[in-house]
Design a protein that fits this description.
Elements (H helix, E strand, L loop, with lengths): L2 E2 L40 H4 L14 H8 L6 E9 L2 E7 L9 H17 L9 H11 L6 E4 L2 E3 L13 E6 L11 H8 L2 H19 L4 E6 L2 E3 L1 H4 L6 E5 L3 E3 L13 H5 L5 H9 L4 E2 H8 L4 E3 L4 H13 E3 L11 E2 L2 H14 L2 H18 L3 H11 L6
Parallel strand pairs: 2-4, 3-6, 6-7, 7-9, 8-10, 9-12
Antiparallel strand pairs: 1-12, 2-3, 4-5, 10-11, 13-14
Helix pairs in contact: 2-3, 2-6, 3-4, 3-6, 6-13
GO molecular function: lyase activity
Organism: Linnemannia schmuckeri
Protein name: Enoyl CoA hydratase domain-containing protein 1
Length: 393
């Protein structure tokens, strides 16, 4: 049975072998616009706070060049089932052979997925004909490996009619009941991404993508089955809620790898737990083990049985879908749905209420510090050790 944390009061907001011969030797244009103001040179501290931070970038501007570059690295893919259940989509990180670690290809597809969700939840979409919407989506996914599903079955194109009942939430999980996400694919890092420039640009794309996801008018929940390590731990923080099993382990191992959080996880964690707890989790790499500890910290809002994280997350999200849910065995049209636009509007209000300026400034600091450490001697040595074949006992 799903266990929830009644006192939760903070509504916050990989690793397959590389087969491509492409490398970072071809220089990517420096993304100077990440830190350059769009306004005249500021003369006051207040004006300096209006820098164009990485997480304020919207697609498909200059960062699209970086997305295209990353798309060539690694295997795995992102799946999006837009009709997982009434009102809910399911986003799956799929790289099971490597515990669902992220590759460059998957990072690009995750950004593609946010593009799609932004398009279908655009408040102005009612003014568009379905045909025009279909063209928009087709253009967005033209070069993407994003796998679309409808009710668990792969489809070639997005059925906009499937959205007629209104999407209000997204469940994010890892594939095949394995790890939620094991962070960055170390084999990809060793061969293509382990330089300060590549690390900085990877960081810029991920911070941008995850912040855009947080700002969607959709309520989100991470369904955490087993381990979420390093960047995977950061990937648990961009959702509004977390449903976790008793066997799950959340661990920010960045200091053990000689780096800091590079995907904005530290700034988001500060909105989920206390400052002292965030410092402990980030600085000492002490893991959160199991659901009860996660509930006590305020990190998670629900606990589900092992193997049932997605089901538990779906059960938790029903409060946003139904005013009166249909009984077991009844058709969905027997129940009474909540007003979709009202739920989305509430998410916009809560999202707007976050101190995004602080989050963005901390994320920018994370990116700068990450660049200074990523690909350095200590980091390289630790990556080599971590990726070495394990000796059999």
């Amino acid at each position: 049975m799903l266990r929830t944390f009644a006192l939760a009061h903070r509504l916050p907001t990989t690793s397959a072998s590389i087969t491509t011969t492409t490398s970072w030797k071809t220089p990517i244009p420096t993304l100077s616009f990440l830190t350059t103001s769009l306004l005249p040179t500021p003369s006051t501290h207040h004006q300096q706070q209006h820098r164009n931070y990485a997480c304020q970038i919207n697609h498909p501007t200059k960062i699209g060049q970086l997305r295209a570059k990353l798309r060539t690295f690694g295997q795995g893919h992102i799946e999006l089932d837009i009709s997982h259940s009434p009102g809910l989509a399911l986003l799956t990180l799929t790289n099971p052979d490597k515990h669902n670690a992220l590759t460059g290809k998957m990072m690009a597809e995750l950004a593609d997925c946010v593009d799609l969700l932004e398009t279908v939840t655009d408040p102005k979409r009612r003014e568009k004909e379905v045909r025009e919407m279909e063209e928009d989506v087709r253009e967005l996914l033209k070069d993407s490996g994003l796998v679309l599903k409808k009710g668990g079955v792969a489809v070639q194109k997005l059925d906009l009619d499937a959205l007629k009942d209104g999407l209000v939430g997204v469940i994010v999980t890892g594939s095949q009941h394995k790890s939620y996400c094991a962070g960055l694919d170390l084999s990809a890092a060793k061969t293509t991404l382990l330089t300060p420039q590549a690390g900085s640009e990877m960081s810029a794309l991920m911070v941008s993508t995850l912040t855009r996801f947080m700002r969607l008018p959709l309520i989100s929940i991470a369904a955490i089955e087993k381990a979420a390590i390093g960047g995977g731990a950061e990937m648990t923080t961009f959702c509004d809620h977390r449903c976790i099993t008793d066997q799950a382990k959340i661990q920010f191992v960045q200091t053990q790898m000689g780096v800091v959080t590079g995907w904005g996880g530290a700034s988001r964690l500060l909105n989920l737990v206390s400052r002292s707890q965030a410092l402990r989790l980030l600085g000492s790499a002490e893991p959160i083990r199991g659901g009860e500890e996660a509930l006590k910290l305020g990190f998670a809002q629900a606990v589900s049985p092992v193997g049932k994280a997605v089901e538990g997350a779906s059960e938790y999200m029903q409060q946003y879908v139904w005013e009166k849910a249909p009984a077991a065995g009844q058709d969905d049209d027997v129940g009474a749905r909540r007003c979709v636009e009202a739920v989305r509007a509430m998410k916009r209000i809560v999202s707007f209420g976050l101190d995004y300026e602080r989050i963005e400034r901390v994320s920018e600091l994370e990116k700068d510090l990450f660049k200074g450490l990523w690909g350095g001697p200590d980091n390289l040595a630790r990556v080599e050790t971590a990726s070495a074949p394990k000796k059999k006992k």
